[in-house]
Structure formats: structure tokens, C-alpha cells
Design a protein that fits this description.
With 248 residues, the chain is mostly helical. It contains 12 helices and no strands. The longest helix is centred in the middle third of the chain and has 35 residues.
């Protein structure tokens, strides 16, 4: 009897980096909070003059886009929290709300881009049609990652990493509100830095990088660099396509 008690007492407690350690248990929830901090910090610089107190008033669709975007951040935090407390049933139920919200965000993201770039060109007289490459790429990357996460929802390790990648694909909107980051084309460097936290977590806990990151990150970097090139280099064929899309 004493030997059994001694064995129980001698059982090692979970540490920091191993399975069931602090990083393993809290990483995804903490990452969701980092996403929220980036979005709040970035948009706090522009939401007042650019939306709430904007003159002239911005289109109503921009308000809907902002509401959907904010709802996604809240959804991501909630889902991460539900997994943390092991409430899988509610996580699955709310997952279908997230799927519908993600689809709405992709549609809104594309439509609002066209509406707002037309607004900038025709009302504010500040056209920058080539920036469509950034907004369209964000929607492609976000929609693809989240769509695959839904498809592979029965594989938790794949699903959660795809959700991280997809959500992080929206972070350039927050990072881009910092003027230095925007002016020096660092939007995607910052975004990828957040995803690399997931890579670091895998190396610390699993001692290897999950295949989701091995496939997703190179594809993201290629797409991001193409988007940056089209925005900054403004090749004639791209500008022509953008102007035709915007009708300006």
C-alpha cells in the first residue's frame, strides 16, 4: 500500500514544453488573444477617423464587413477556449456558425474591396487600384485554409493548424494600420511571424514541424510575394484589370 502511494507521489508533474505542459495546453488560446491584440491595436488607429467619424460617411457595407471581421476574431477566441476546457460538443456545434461566417467574410471581403476602392477613387480622389492584389490574396488564402480546416475537421491536429493559418491570413489588415509596417511592405513578414509561433510550438512540444505548416507556409510566401509585387510594381496589365474591375 505504501509503495503504491509512493508511486503516485513520485509521478512527474507536467512541465512547460512537453505533452500536457503549459505550452501544449495554453498555446492556441494564447495565440487567439495575440490575434485579438493585433487587430484591436491596429484598427484603433483608423476606425475612428476612417469609419465611425468619417466624413464623408463610408458605405454601409464597410460596417458589415467590420462586424463580420470582429465576429470572426471573437469566434476564434471562443473556439480556442472551448477546446482548452475540453467542451468539444459546443465547439463542434459552433463550428457550423464559423463555417457560414467564413463564407460570408470571403464574399464580403471581395465585394467590399471593389466598393471601397471605387469610393476612394471617385469620392476621396485617392485611387490605389493595384492594392486589390492584397485584399484578393487575403480572401483566397483565408478561404482556402478555413475551407480545408472544415473539410478535415475530423483530424484535430490538422484542423486546428489550418484554422490558425487561415485566421493569421487576416492579420495584415491589423499590421497594415501601423504606418511603418505599411510603408516598408512588412505586412506579410509580421503575419508570417505569428504563424511561426505555431511552428515554434510544434518544435518545442512535438520535436517536429507539422505537415500543415510545411505545405502552407511556402505556398503563402509565394502568394504574398506575388501580391506585393502586383501592388508595388503596378504592371500595366494588372492596373488595367483592376481599373476594369472597379469601373474607373
Amino acid at each position: 500500500m505504501a509503495s503504491v502511494s509512493q508511486q503516485v507521489v513520485a509521478r512527474p508533474m507536467p512541465g512547460v514544453v512537453e505533452r500536457n505542459g503549459l505550452i501544449d495546453r495554453y498555446f492556441y488560446f494564447l495565440l487567439s488573444l495575440i490575434v485579438a491584440v493585433v487587430i484591436v491595436a491596429g484598427f484603433s488607429k483608423t476606425v475612428g477617423p476612417g469609419l465611425i467619424h468619417a466624413a464623408p460617411a463610408r458605405p454601409v457595407l464597410l460596417w458589415l464587413h467590420g462586424a463580420a471581421f470582429s465576429a470572426w476574431v471573437g469566434f476564434f477566441i471562443l473556439q480556442s477556449g472551448l477546446v482548452r476546457i475540453r467542451n468539444v460538443s459546443w465547439h463542434r456545434v459552433l463550428g457550423w456558425f464559423g463555417a457560414a461566417l467564413a463564407a460570408l467574410m470571403v464574399v464580403l471581403g471581395c465585394v467590399v474591396s471593389v466598393v471601397m476602392f471605387r469610393f476612394d477613387a471617385l469620392v476621396l480622389k485617392q485611387p490605389d487600384p493595384s492594392f486589390l492584389s492584397i485584399t484578393y490574396w487575403d480572401m483566397i488564402a483565408f478561404g482556402t485554409a478555413v475551407g480545408l480546416a472544415i473539410l478535415w475537421r475530423g483530424k484535430p491536429e490538422v484542423h486546428r493548424r489550418l484554422m490558425v493559418v487561415g485566421t493569421c491570413c487576416l492579420l495584415d489588415a491589423g499590421f497594415g494600420r501601423f504606418q511603418y509596417v505599411f510603408d516598408h511592405n512588412l505586412l506579410y513578414w509580421c503575419l508570417d511571424g505569428v504563424i511561426l509561433l505555431g511552428v515554434a510550438r510544434d518544435l518545442l512540444v512535438n520535436r517536429r514541424v507539422h505537415k500543415v505548416y510545411l505545405y502552407a507556409l511556402p505556398l503563402l510566401v509565394v502568394g504574398q510575394n506575388v501580391a506585393i509585387y502586383l501592388w508595388r510594381a503596378r504592371p500595366g496589365w494588372w492596373l488595367s484589370m483592376c481599373r476594369e474591375t472597379l469601373g474607373i
